[in-house]
Amino acid sequence: xxxxxxxxxxxxxxxxxxxRRPAPPAPALPAAVLDALPAPxxxxxxxxxxxxxxxxxxxxxxxxxxLPLSVGDDYAEAVLAARDDDDVRVLLDGLxxxxxxxxxxxxxxVALGPAPVGRWVHVQAxxxxxxxxxxxxxxxxxxxxxxxxxxxxxxxxxxLTDLPNRVHLQELVEAELARVDGRSTAVLVLDVDEFKSVNxxxxxxAGDLLIRQVASRLSHAVGxxxxxxxxxxxxxxxxxxxxxxxxxHDLAERCRAAxxxxxxxxxxxxxxxxxxxxxxxxxxxxxxxxLVRDAxxxxxxxxxxGRNTVTAFSDDLRASAQRRLRVTTELSDAIEAGQMxxxxxxxxxxxxxxxxxxxxxxxxxxxxRGLLPPSEFVPVAEASGLVDExxxxxxxxxxxxxxxxxxxxxxxxxxxxxxxxHMGSGTLVSDVTRALTTSGLRxxxxxxxxxxxxxxxxxxxxxxxxxxxxxxxIEVSIDDFGSGFSCLGQIVSxxxxxxxxxxxxxxxxxxxGHKQASQSAAAVETVVSLARACGMRSxxxxxxxxxxxxxxxxxxxxxxxxxxxxxxxxxEDLPRxxxxxxxxxxxxxx
Length: 590
Known about the structure:
Blueprint: E1 8-9, E2 13-14, H1 28-35, E3 41-44, E4 50-53, H2 55-59, H3 61-65, H4 75-82, H5 86-101, E5 106-112, E6 119-127, E7 134-140, H6 142-149, H7 151-154, H8 166-177, E8 184-192, H9 195-202, H10 204-221, E9 227-232, E10 235-241, H11 245-257, E11 263-265, E12 268-270, E13 274-282, H12 288-304, E14 310-312, H13 315-324, H14 326-337, E15 340-349, E16 354-366, E17 370-372, H15 378-384, H16 387-407, E18 413-417, H17 420-423, H18 428-439, E19 446-451, H19 452-457, H20 459-471, E20 475-481, H21 488-492, E21 498-501, H22 503-507, H23 514-533, E22 537-540, H24 546-554, E23 559-560, E24 569-570, H25 574-589
Parallel strand pairs: 13-14, 16-18, 18-19, 19-20, 20-21, 21-22, 22-23
Antiparallel strand pairs: 1-2, 3-4, 3-7, 5-6, 6-7, 8-10, 8-13, 9-10, 11-12, 15-16, 15-23, 15-24, 16-17
Helix pairs in contact: 6-20, 8-12, 9-10, 16-18
C-alpha cells in the first residue's frame, strides 16, 4: 500500500472512483474474531483489498459517513477518497511498510472526511502472518481531539458537573484572599456520607448521577455571590464571598438542608446526608491552600462526630492534624531536598533480545529509614494531595535522563507510572508537555502507564487524556492487566498501544502444580492474543526465572521485564550495564 496507484483528477487529487476487486473467501475464524471487537475493523489482503468487515463496521457512524467500505474495495483508494493529505499518506505508507516487511504495529491518528470538519480516527494495524494480511481497527476520537482544542476550559472545570475544578477553585479562593477591602472569605468542604456504598450497591452510573444531583442542589442552595466547585470524587467546595463566621455557618446549614429530600437513583429514593467543614479567613491572613486545608480538616472532624454535621475549624484541629501529617510533611520536604531518586528497570524485546526501554521506579532515600520503595510513601502522597507534585518531579527527572541517554546513542523509551489521582486532576497533559519541553526529549521516547483498575475508575476521562497524549506522539500503556476485573470492552477500546500482563499471571507459569502452570500460561496467551488483535504490544511483568522468560517468549509476548533480566538500577548505572550486556552477547556470538 505504499504510494498506492489511485486514479488522479483535478490537479492530482484523488477522485471519487473506487475500484472493487473480487475478494478471495476469508477464513471463518478471523471473521468471528473481528466481530468480537467493539471498534470498526477490517481484514486486508496483502494488496490492500478488503477481505472482511466486522459487525461493528456497519453500525459505526464514521464507517457509514466518512469511510464507506465494502468487501472487495481497495482500502487505500477509499481512504484517499475520504481525505488526501500528508497524514493520510503517512498512514498508507506505514501500512504498506507493515505489509511488505512486518515490524511493529502501526498506530496513528488521522483526520478523515471533508475538511475542515471531518472526523478524527485512531487507526491501529497489525500484521497477521507472512502473507502480509493486516487487521486494521478504526476508533472515532473526534470528541477527544475537539476537547483538546477546548483545553483551557477543560483544565478549569470538572467534566462531570461542569463546576470549577480543584485548580480553578484554588485560583478563585486566592483571588478573594487577595482583596484589599477587608472582607472575610469562607470555604466549606463537603462530602457525601456513604457515597462509596452508593457506588458499590448501585454502580458507578448511579454514583455519577448522584454527583450531578448534589451539584445542582448545592448550586441552588448558595447565594448569588457564592461559588460551588468539585474537588473530585464526592467532595465539593463552596466559596462564600463577604461571609463572616456566623454567615458561613448559615451557608453550611443551607447546604446540609439540600440533602433533606432523598435522591432518585436507579429507580429508588435514596436518603443521604453530608458532612461539612467550615473555615473563615480575613483577606491577607491565609493562602488558598491553607484555607481549603483547614476546612477539609474540619470536614474530617464532622465525619468523626457522627456525620450529617457542620464543624468549624479550630486551632485544636490544626494541632491534631499536624501530628497526623508528619509523614506527609517529611515527604514534601523530601521532594524539595532531593531525597527522591529514580531507578530504572530494563525492558527486553523478546524477538531480538535487545533492551529497548526502561520503566522508571521512584524511591525515597530517607535520612533515617534508608531506601524506601513506592509502597511506603506513594499512598501517603495520594491521600495528601502530593502525588501530582511527586509525579511532576518524576516526569522531569525521567525526561532529563532519557534525553541524556538519547544523546549518548542509547535511544531508550522510558515508562512513567501515573496515579489515577493525577489522571483526574486535569493537569496531566500540561505536566507531561512541560517535562518534554524542558528536557528536549522527543515525545515518542516517553510512555505513560496507568493501571487497569485506575482506567476502569473513569474510562471516559482516561480515554480522552490517552487520545490527547497520543496525538502528540507519546505512547500509552495499560499496566497490571489481569490483576482486576474491569470491563473488557473498556480496555480494548482505549487508545493505548501497550498492554502489560500482571506479574501474578506470569509468575504462575512456574507454579508448583502442573494445572496452575497450564492455566497461567493459557491466561498469558489469551492476553497476548487480545493485545495483538487490538494492535497493541504486550509486556510480561515480573519475569523472575529463565523458565518464565522462555515461556512468555514462546507465548508471543513482545517484551518482558523482571529480575531475570535486570533489577532496577540508578540512571548512571544503566549505560554501563547495557555496555557490559552488549559485550557478553558479542562474546557469546563469537
